[in-house]
Design goal:
The complex is a heterodimer of chains A (about 950) and B (about 500). Chain A is mainly alpha-helical and about 950 residues long. Among the domains of chain A are: about 140 residues, no CATH class; about 200 residues, no CATH class; about 90 residues, no CATH class; about 230 residues, no CATH class. Chain A is about 45% helix and about 5% strand. Chain A has a two-stranded antiparallel ribbon. A two-stranded antiparallel sheet of chain A has the order 3-4. Chain A starts with a helix and ends with a strand. Chain B has a domain of about 300 residues: Alkaline Phosphatase, subunit A, CATH 3.40.720. Chain B is about 30% helix and about 15% strand. In chain B, the strands form seven sheets. In chain B, strands 9-8-10-1-11-15-6-16 form an eight-stranded mixed beta sheet. A three-stranded antiparallel beta sheet of chain B has the order 2-3-13, with no helix packed on it.
């Protein structure tokens, strides 16, 4: 009977032009898409791999059922159809389908399925479904959402699927709201916030939630200064602002202007940017080689913000600086952005796979950073939720198909900070030591070789001939390996001469590796002082077996290697190419942006950069406006600044976001203008304390109304920088090679495994001024993070960080209350306060002013004076030594032998280490006051910004 | 109340997500309630050991205080669990299956015959002249089940019938850190939560006064570093807490040497007073209050942690059993004994590191030493867990990040070693509902690639979760635009590994 129905069905299918039945329409409108989205992934997409034997590509398959040999679809009876029962997830006999809960059918979808089965389960073919869809298009658009034209998915059902228009907000052209005449007296931001202000009905009257009063000037200057520079205001700046007799708006406006003019402004903004782009000074993974030149990109970003470089230009330079302005080193440096992801090619890995990792990384990074699209979701299939077909993913990737990695020549520019290069002498000393070790070990091998023959009672005659040959032909280079190679050339079988590393002890094995690989690692570090930029060039893809040293642009970049033709990669696998694709942008925006992408080797990136930085691109200005808002308020208007797709949080204030984005473009993409605009709003200047907290909690439980300003904890970098600023130790120099502060010594000296060896210990800069620099300048190694930064939620550079977390966990206490860093800062501040004042009271005043930006009240003063006297009596032991070790013994398991071994490492930098304090000044009195400073540093008032 | 988001709040995001997708409300994600209320800060304190009443660690019979609503509160799984705890023995570096548990007699015949490999997926590792290399070790059948073991597993052979060997596992990466990330976190590129984080996220922990997920690393951290036990995008409470084997078990656990306890107490009292004054006109600020509380917790922990991990009170017989005090086994023996103690206290997931097993050269010597270092401690752990009645609900896993090749390049000359092999490896499990006494799957006659019961590591992860009562498809967290899970995109249970 079932078969009979099928035949009947088939005849309906072929009856072109016949009026579609309701059941067919239901299939076309609801069921066909549902099958693709929920079922075909395992039951038909790959005909050679059909799960459970159940093929849901057509009605026959569904009716036939799978390996259970039970019909999956019982026409007319949903409650007997396993297809339906599995989807309900409530059947005892059939396991829930789709298996993932996140993909469960909604009650509405289940109802469709039921209705369809019970109404005859008609299954029109593809053509007919298309015809029906066309016929009903208008009606469905109103009822079901809209279709979105794109370059097309791998299947038509994807191409023709419908989207809830609310999830497509980010693709709509900017729509700058007009303010009503009533609103025009207000700051536009406040007016637009007011439109969405929560309210409640009280006795028939609608009462909006009140907003908090204006914050005090003392609070405002601390807030604005941290927001724009990441540093606390000096006591003098606080006094001057608090006592400014002009009106609030004028005084605050001038304060903001001063902060925007400060060179520290760029450092603060760059930190936000580097979070998004995943900045690090090392390459991650197995080797975690240092990226000697990454600092030049970091400084480029700081300069860009300080110079208020128009954001569209900032985009263009980072994506295509080398194409746009090939002779300008600054533009080459800017392309460091494309290199920010972790990457390496070891001898173990297949080169093509590593190349694909770069392409995937850069594609996703461009998407997240500039377009708030996590493009990797479309790497293996069309995007599940957003109108991004996998074809688009590979079109963007095709932009980078001719982009190659290199540390490119880029002469140092006048405005770059090139001081401190003399530190490389310490690295040279280390290199020399490694070379000496290798030479000494080679002598051992030459001796062991003879013992090897003696042990076997074999004649070393041939070996000695080889030695003689080598010494004649390669004078000065008579090493064990050269002799072995000679033996091989002489045709001696390999088991008749000494093996590599013959007779080594575990100690010697370990030493050999540490020295040999250590020299290789130093190669990357020496690049730091040379005029090269972490960058890219255009050309064919060279073939590599491994990358062990910085890459340079090859002379034959257009001749040697593969000219990549990008294809859609099935399953994201570089060995499974399918349709070729051309370079392009997101096709969902084709109606708004008309840009022809070239097929040439050059100018692909420039075109993409222009496409992104086009004023008609609705994503780009919204993305940056949203970030800028977040950098001031802690929360973004669209809650996932890296994801504007339908799975990201929708904007809480879409009109405000569009107003900001449109205004941003009107102001020539000027970021500094946006700070002025945002910070001059009432919303920004509100207190963190609400007059009616209970009502605030009720009407705005998610804290999205901006009725109060949200208090925030200082970030890891701000905490450290603020300590240094308060103690007077902060070296405010801009830019330059990375610095290395003193970090927890156990972490600094812990042996760290990298490929085949151990990375060198962390050694701080010998001089306080060189290491006590702003945190943005500290060396960022992917494999060794300063524990102080880590516990205070500095993001690891694995993922783009769209917003900092601020969790409270106990290791923060250990780091800040017990750790050396805060103890040192507290002592410096105490010494300084004592030296610059003439009474205990004045010293405590000074410490409060420097750390809190205010004077202590009388009670606090008494409390601290008393504490000082008491704590002094408890200080009897000498202070902990501030010296650092010069030679350390490191322990590890040796790879060749599996035995524990230890090796000595000379810490050349530490030989010249100058402590932060002059020992003669570390008096009992200073130490007592330091305890107070330490306590202040740990207090909530210091760690939070109101 | 401060509304600043503490982390991606899963309940909110799921809600947003479902509004967006017009989906029915599901409550299947066992997302703990992460609000910013004070009490959540008092449990499972993220990157550290410890919590409210760390004294529980000191009392032998302590199970800690039960709490219903902390992020680490015990939660029911999705299935009846076979195992409640997991001890994961991570042999970092890639132990050779061929020289431990997967004998390849064919290699005796092929020994030093030239080996060639072709294909576009060839890497530099395979360049130069290569030879087949036989195992330097003799093999024998151990236990009644006749498990294959090289004969230098003297002690493990005694518990052979407790073990379930799996020879079908494959991974994607040939490099250590990426393979480690995949074995530990499912994702090759790092940044995802480790298995232990997922498990504590799904099940909480029985002891609210200890972290749910402990890690005992080697002195040198493995390649890839602390990302191997990261909470990834899960909230910080689920992060693995490493107890360092040397020096301070937790960084900066103690103040500088000259700061006495009395002096520190005084400073803490001053801090409390300053914070209280600050809080006066900031009432109901739970975040501030939580931060104040964390200082008191930390103060207690710095005296209690060292005591809790001190093994000097153990009787001589126990120490001897684990090989503690013997040079070769002392280091791993201590970890194994401490693991047993922590399981007794209700810790959910413990990962022990050993290595490096990356024996490219001289495999006889290197693997010989490594096996000696872990053989006795591991056998002791299994025996001891069984004696305490803990083995039946504790899943023990032994593995590396990949296996090794049957061939070797010229780098060792005649000093035979083996290179990395993602296509074949041996994993074994014990206790916790595993299919003890069986060997599942097989590799080809050279040990080059798995050929029977072949599964991607994601299936092993799904199986591991299943034994612990968790469904990988339900154990999800919304991040970067989608619900993520340990297996990445789903996998299947390897039924044969389950008793």
């Amino acid at each position: 009977m079932v078969f009979g129905q099928d035949e009947k069905q088939a005849s309906i299918d072929q009856a072109a032009g016949a009026e579609a039945s309701d059941n067919e329409v239901l299939f076309a409108r609801r069921i066909s898409g549902l099958l693709v989205e929920k079922c075909l992934g395992c039951h038909g997409a790959d005909p050679d791999d059909i799960n459970g034997g159940l093929d849901l590509r057509n009605r026959q398959g569904a009716v036939a059922g799978g390996d259970t040999e039970e019909a999956s679809l019982v026409v007319g009876d949903a409650e007997s159809s396993p297809l339906y029962l599995a989807a309900t997830r409530e059947s005892d006999d059939w396991s829930p389908m789709p298996p993932k809960d996140a993909e469960a059918l909604s009650p509405e979808q289940l109802a469709w399925l039921k209705e369809w089965i019970e109404g005859g389960a008609q299954w029109p073919d593809k053509d007919r479904v298309e015809r029906i869809a066309k016929q009903y298009d208008d009606q469905w658009s109103v009822e079901d959402g809209v279709t979105v034209p794109t370059s097309g998915g791998l299947a038509d059902t994807w191409t023709n699927r419908r989207y809830d228009p609310r999830g497509l907000w980010a693709y709509q052209p900017l729509n700058k709201p007009d303010l009503t005449s009533e609103e025009s007296s207000k700051h536009p931001i406040d007016a637009l916030l007011q439109r969405a202000q929560p309210s409640e009905k009280v006795g028939g009257e609608t009462l909006p939630l009140r907003v908090a009063p204006r914050a005090s000037r003392r609070e405002l200057i601390r807030r604005a200064t941290f927001d724009l520079t990441g540093l606390p205001p000096s006591p003098e700046q606080v006094d001057s602002f608090v006592n400014d007799s002009r009106d609030d708006a004028t005084a605050f406006g001038e304060l903001v202007q001063g902060l925007l003019d400060s060179p520290h402004y760029g450092e603060r903004m760059a930190q936000h940017w580097l979070d998004v782009v995943r900045y690090a000074d090392s390459s991650g993974f197995a080797n975690d080689y240092e990226r000697g030149n990454a600092w030049r990109y970091r400084d480029y970003v700081i300069r860009a913000f300080n110079d208020d470089k128009p954001y569209d230009q900032f985009i263009r330079e980072q994506i295509a600086g080398d194409e746009i302005d090939p002779n300008n080193p600054e533009a080459t440096i800017a392309t460091g952005f494309l290199r920010m992801g972790p990457w390496e090619l070891t001898g173990m890995e297949v080169a093509k796979v590593a190349r694909q990792r770069f392409l995937d990384d850069v594609t996703n990074s461009v998407g997240e950073t500039f377009l708030a699209h996590s493009l990797q979701c479309a790497r293996c299939h069309d995007h599940k939720f957003d109108p991004v077909p996998t074809r688009d993913y590979y079109s963007i990737q095709a932009v980078f198909a001719t982009t190659q990695l290199a540390e490119r020549e880029a002469p140092f520019l006048d405005f770059e900070n090139t001081s401190g290069f003399e530190e490389q002498r310490y690295l040279k000393e280390r290199k020399k030591e490694y070379e000496q070790t290798l030479n000494a070990l080679d002598e051992v091998l030459m001796e062991n070789a003879l013992s090897w023959y003696a042990d076997r009672q074999a004649s070393p005659k041939k070996w000695l001939e080889a030695v003689e040959f080598v010494s004649k032909n390669q004078p000065g280079n008579v090493n064990f390996n050269a002799v072995r190679n000679r033996m091989a050339k002489m045709g001696v079988p390999e088991d008749q001469y000494p093996p590599k590393l013959v007779g080594f002890t575990p100690q010697q094995f370990g030493m050999e590796r540490v020295a040999r690989k250590g020299i290789q690692r130093l190669g990357w570090q020496f690049d730091r002082y040379r005029p090269y930029a972490l960058a890219v060039y255009n050309g064919r893809t060279p073939s590599f077996k491994g990358v062990y040293a910085p890459l340079r642009v090859p002379a034959d970049r257009m001749k040697k290697g593969e000219l990549e033709q990008t294809c859609v990669l099935t399953g994201g696998d570089p060995f499974s190419p399918s349709d070729p694709v051309r370079a392009g942008g997101l096709s969902v925006l084709d109606g708004q942006l008309n840009m022809e992408f070239p097929d040439t080797v050059e100018q692909r990136r420039e075109t993409l950069a222009n496409w992104i930085a086009d004023a008609n691109n609705p994503l780009t200005p919204r993305v940056i406006a949203n970030r800028l808002w977040q950098w001031h308020f802690g929360i973004a208007i669209a809650g996932n600044p890296n994801n504007f797709g339908s799975t990201g949080k929708r904007p809480t204030h879409p009109q405000l976001l569009d107003w900001l984005a449109a205004t941003f473009i009107e102001n020539g993409w000027s970021i500094k203008q946006m700070h002025h605009i945002i910070m001059s709003s009432e919303a920004y200047q509100r207190s963190t304390r609400h007059p009616d907290p209970e009502r605030l909690d009720r009407l705005d439980p998610m804290g999205q109304s901006y009725s109060v300003y949200q208090r925030r904890r200082l970030t890891a970098e701000e905490l450290r920088d603020a300590m240094l600023a308060a103690s007077g130790e902060l070296n405010r120099e801009l830019g330059g090679i990375p610095c290395r502060p003193i970090i927890n010594q156990e972490a600094a000296l812990q042996p760290r495994m990298v490929m085949g060896t151990f990375a060198a210990a962390w050694q701080p800069n010998p001089l306080p001024k060189d290491r006590n620099r702003r945190s943005i300048y500290t060396l960022k190694l992917r494999g060794l993070v300063d524990p102080l930064m880590e516990v205070f939620n500095a993001p690891p550079p694995d993922f783009s960080c769209e917003g900092r977390e601020a969790s409270t966990v106990t290791p923060q206490v250990f780091a800040l209350f017990n750790g050396r860093n805060s103890h040192d800062r507290a002592l410096s501040l105490a010494i300084r306060a004592i030296e610059t004042t003439d009474s205990d009271r004045a010293a405590i005043f000074d410490c409060f002013r420097r750390l809190y930006g205010r004077r202590p009240d009388p009670e606090e003063l008494e409390l601290c004076l008393k504490h000082w006297r008491q704590v002094e009596t408890l200080i009897d032991e000498d202070p902990a030594s501030s010296k650092l070790p010069v030679r350390i013994v490191r322990e590890a398991v040796e790879e060749n032998t599996g035995e524990r071994f230890s090796f000595e490492e000379t810490l050349y930098f530490n030989e010249d280490f100058v402590p932060d304090h002059d020992p003669s000044k570390i008096t009992r009195r200073a130490r007592g006051l330091a305890d107070i400073c330490l306590t202040l540093i740990n207090s909530n008032e210091f760690a939070y910004v109101d | 109340m401060d509304h600043r988001p503490q982390s991606i709040a899963p309940d909110n995001t799921i809600e947003d997500f479902e509004v967006a997708m017009n989906r029915r409300q599901t409550n299947h994600h066992p997302a703990p309630v992460i609000d910013s209320s004070r009490r959540t800060f008092l449990y499972g304190l993220g990157a550290s050991l410890g919590s409210v009443a760390l004294t529980a660690m000191l009392a032998d019979d302590a199970k800690g205080t039960a709490n219903d609503d902390g992020p680490l509160a015990p939660k029911p799984g999705h299935f009846p669990a076979k195992a409640k705890h997991c001890i994961f023995l991570m042999m970092e570096g890639g132990p050779s299956h061929i020289d431990t548990f997967d004998p390849k007699p064919m290699l005796e015949k092929m020994h030093l015959k030239e080996f060639t490999r072709e294909g576009e997926q060839k890497s530099a590792m395979e360049s130069g002249k290569r030879y087949y290399v036989k195992s330097p070790f003799k093999f024998r059948k151990a236990g009644e089940s006749g498990a294959d073991m090289s004969d230098n597993w003297h002690h493990l052979a005694g518990v052979a019938d407790e073990l379930c060997f799996f020879r079908g596992c494959q991974v994607d990466s040939v490099n250590h850190p990426t393979a480690m990330y995949q074995m530990n976190c499912g994702n090759r590129f790092g940044g995802d939560p480790a298995i232990g984080s997922w498990v504590t996220y799904g099940l909480g922990s029985e002891n609210q006064d200890l972290p749910g997920f402990l890690v005992f690393p080697e002195i040198s951290y493995p390649q890839g570093g602390a990302a191997n036990w990261s909470n990834g995008y899960l909230p910080a409470y689920f992060q693995g807490t490493p107890l360092r084997p040397k020096g301070s078990p937790i960084l900066d656990l103690q103040p500088p040497a000259d700061v006495t306890a009395g002096r520190q107490r005084m400073n803490l009292d001053l801090l409390a007073k300053l914070n209280q004054r600050h809080a006066v006109d900031r009432p109901d600020q739970e975040e501030l209050a939580a931060r104040m509380a964390s200082y008191e917790l930390a103060f207690r922990m710095q005296t209690q942690v060292p005591d809790a991990i001190d093994l000097s009170g153990e009787d001589a017989k126990t120490l001897q059993l684990y090989g503690i005090g013997e040079e070769e086994t002392d280091s791993f023996g201590r970890k194994c004994l401490l693991a047993r103690k922590m399981i007794e206290k209700g810790v959910r997931f413990i990962q022990l590191y050993n290595g490096t097993w990356d024996s490219h050269d001289y495999i006889e010597r290197a693997h010989g030493n490594l096996i000696r270092g872990v053989d006795k401690p591991i056998a002791a752990l299994i025996q001891d867990l069984k004696r305490c009645g803990l083995l039946e609900n504790t899943l023990v896993v032994w593995c590396g990040e990949f296996g090794r090749t049957p061939d070797n390049g010229i780098r060792g000359g005649v000093a035979y070693g083996r290179d990395h092999n993602p296509n074949a490896m041996t994993i074994w499990t014990a206790g916790g509902g595993c299919n003890a006494g069986h060997t599942i799957g097989a590799t080809d006659e050279m040990g080059m690639t798995a050929v029977e019961e072949v599964h991607h590591v994601r299936d092993f992860h799904v199986t591991l979760l299943r034994l612990l009562g968790l469904d990988d498809n339900k154990l999800t967290f919304y991040h970067a635009g989608r619900f993520k899970q340990l297996s990445q995109f789903g996998g299947q249970v390897i039924e044969k590994l389950i008793a």
